[in-house]
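Researcher: Structure prediction, please.
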Amino acid sequence: MPCTGDQKRGGEISLELTHNEEKCKEYREEAKKLVSQMTLQEKCSQTLNWAVGIDRLHIKAYNWWNEALHGVARAGVATVFPQAITLAGSFDEDLLEEVADAISTEGRAKYNNQQKYNDTDIYKGLTFWSPNVNIFRDPRWGRGHETFGEDPFLTGRLGVRFIEGIQGHNEKYLKAAACAKHFAVHSGPEDLRHHFNAEVSLQDMYETYLPAFKACIKEAKVEAVMGAYNRTNGEPCCGSEFLLQKILRQKWGFQGHVVSDCWAIKDFYQGHRVVDTPQEAVALAMNNGCDLNCGNLFSCLEDVVRDGKVSEERVDEAVVNLYTTRMKLGTLGEVTDNPYDEISFLEADSEKMKKLNEKAALKSMVLLKNERELLPLDLEKYHTIGVIGPNANNRKALVGNYEGTASEYITVLEGIQDYVKGKARVLYSEGCHLYKEKVENLGIENDRIAEVKGICEYSDIVICCLGLDAGLEGEEGDESNQYASGDKPNLNLPGLQEKVIETVVASGKPVVLVLLSGSALAINWPAEHVPAILYGGYPGAQGGKAIAKLLFGEASPEGKLPITFYHSAEELPEFTDYGMKGRTYRYMEQEALYPFGYGLSYTSFAVQNVKLSADEITKAGISIEADITNTGCFDGAETVQVYVKVEKPDTPNAQLKALKKVFLQKGETKHVELTLTDTDFALYDEEGKLVVSEGTCKIYIGTCQPDSRSASLTGWIPVVYEVSSANTYVAEE
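Model: Predicted structure follows.
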């Protein structure tokens, strides 16, 4: 990354490392000189997200608050890519960087135009508060669709590459600044977050909640970290000595800036009640390393300093951290050679961006079921196509939350209509309201069921579009959120949706279920009775076009589930329990409905000729080689997945530790190489130490995880090898 040392693929360190470190030092020294000329009042004014201009020092006003979770958000027209959880389904690191690079290109394009007209409003800066690398530990959490799923390794890999795409690889300037959030141990419940204490063992903290953040900081050199609303083990996260000082700064050596979540510091005294006054809250946050307040509480920072609760030196440090970021961006000081200043406004929402958006959707959706190869659909067979369901023509179900504004939205219905135009007739019914008992307020319950039956009667095949949208799962306080907290009360299809799919299946016509949601749903009845199910997630503004191409075989599905689909919420521990026992594929004991890492294709693949470089675990690690062949009749992509199981009692299930996405034409074979370090065979103990234990581990190499449910769904079992460690030792992190 710029100014931090560019780490190339495969771990080779760039020759520019020393130069970049020196450039960082230069920026920091320039920032110190600038800060030394400022009054206390001026310095304090810069610690709020709406930092005012200081004319005498030629410092422009700057609003730090901007969002780019899956596209530049809330600032006019920009590409709305698939939601983060959907992108995670691609299992494709390269795609995540490509999408993030496009986001930062649009961010620069819009910023350059806004600066031209002196627009420094909120959502108009280059500091993007993304990605969200919290672990989606419970499918009821409303904000889970902002994340990359339930697995720390996958979240870390995708988070790193997303950050690299946002920040760019220029040796002198950041393209934009990314922010890893919400640090740390944060995943609901939403309605408790302003006073909730997430109690977690050191073992679970280091094993599950911290690894993705660590990767984002130590590998991707993310420029910013945002604290969480809740407390963790008694400390409010935005003022936590343990998290912000001992872990972030001291253990991981973080050099960027820390920002609070919005109005979170008020919670110190209003919700968490760990202090009594706003001044004490400000002191707690600032003294523990929070540099920037999203909100207005740092407005009293000057008084807090004068009262001796925060030193002026600490304020200097905070502003230097912030100004260093602005200098890396080339938005502060004299800048004449920043290539990103040349990005044209016309780069945003271009045809190139629309094509990438469609590509991202195609690569991310997951085929869950395809009985008797119903898919892809043959237009020679189906002349009348029924499209039924509340998500068939629902734009909101395309995008998820923290979304931008697209210039074009293609719903599932529109995508199918466009694709089959002139070849088949499409009949459409909303089927039912997304969550209410009727569509029309004056109608009777289930007021569209006659229309549903009529469409089934006259259709050769029915595509049923069900699920959720961001009005049913999201952040507490989101406008139009039907559940005030944003969390889901259960995992069921809401309203009358299951009755509709039962009616459609009862018609006897072939049925395809297209499921749009940002989280797992308990689709037990459809899983048993519907022959084909495509999980579309929230596929972005071009999602309907991509879904049509997948349904009719112009492309083959290649996504994998980044989350577990459970049979019921009753299988889960209490939502407020942050212990990992019984949660996610890593710790669950029962079979999943659809497992993490699972996804079908229209073609078939074989993993063969697997070789390991060693059968003993040492600090040198173990290299894996394998051939993967497309043995089917369609071109397609597959993800080689490597899982490791430590063969000791009370250890996690086999965990994902390496992956490689490969595109293969039919009949083609490619050679892949992956590497496991000794830390991939290590587990954290109760004291938070990473330990390689004497004994054996199993390595599974295949295209899914090595659980019984994946085996029954795919008919395929990963190749397994046993390796061993001759002794027990603490691994170097």
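Model: The CA atoms of residues 505 and 529 lie 7 Å apart.
Researcher: Thanks, that helps.
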